[in-house]
Amino acid sequence: MIETAxxxxxxxxxxxxxxxxxxxxxxxxxxxxxLYRQLAQHPLFRRCRHVALYLPNDGExxxxxxxxxxxxxxxxxxxxxxxxxxxxxxVFQRIHPGEALHLNRFRIREPRPNRARQRKVWTLDLLLMPxxxxxxxxxxxxxxxxxxxxxxxxxxxxxxxxKPALLGLAHECQKVDxxxxxxxxxxxxxxxxxKAWYAADRKMMRRGQxxxxxxxxxx
Length: 219
Ligand SMILES: Nc1nc2c(c(=O)[nH]1)N(C=O)[C@@H](CNc1ccc(C(=O)N[C@@H](CCC(=O)O)C(=O)O)cc1)CN2
Ligand SMILES: Nc1ncnc2c1ncn2[C@@H]1O[C@H](COP(=O)(O)OP(=O)(O)OP(=O)(O)O)[C@@H](O)[C@H]1O
Prior knowledge:
Pfam families: 5-FTHF_cyc-lig. The chain has about 220 residues and is α/β, with parallel strands linked by helices.
């Protein structure tokens, strides 16, 4: 496991991105299958009706099998869509199997913006987030654009809001000893890797319940 002491967020991001990009295609496929096995039968995934995922980029662990399973099971599936530059907003838009995609400004595939198919993030049940790095306490390091942080900023105002459940997805080799929380960081309920679940509240997590109380303002 990487020790973060003495490393800046930028240095850590570079190191961890190199690590995940270095995984051979066969290792990536194996990790994706293992990730699927970790999550597909978990109550948080089984019960969710509206789930946002991502299409893998830059060596990220691939949630494609979960996307297929969610669609087969009749769940509504969403992908992140960036608003046109210079806007810094990211929204979640429903995606159907076989839908045409284009490349966004970071060359990540996403659906063409269509307001009618977008859903407010706090009305989703489950958000599966791509991680660059993570710790065992819900700490998360992303690509550094602040897109997920800004989308989730409402959670710092409504601390007891439990929607959506936030699960980070990562390769095991992206685990670090400790990530300092910035004031805008929203902790994850858990991170799921190809090997294990890392949750601050393990018992609740196994039962598929979240440790937060419902927030009336956000229901
Ligand atoms: N698969 C996936 N989709 C996603 C995200 C993600 O992390 N993974 N995002 C999560 O936020 C958003 C895109 N965020 C990004 C933020 C920064 C960079 C970035 O720094 N990219 C370049 C350098 C910048 C450039 O080309 O202008 C790089 O690769 O270094 C990429 C994506 C939306 N979609
Ligand atoms: N709620 C917010 N409002 C405005 N700016 C924000 C907010 N949250 C984060 N940011 C900005 O986003 C930038 C990136 O933050 P950080 O380094 O934590 O990225 P990250 O968590 O790795 O990225 P991401 O959220 O895209 O996965 C920071 O410079 C911060 O100022």
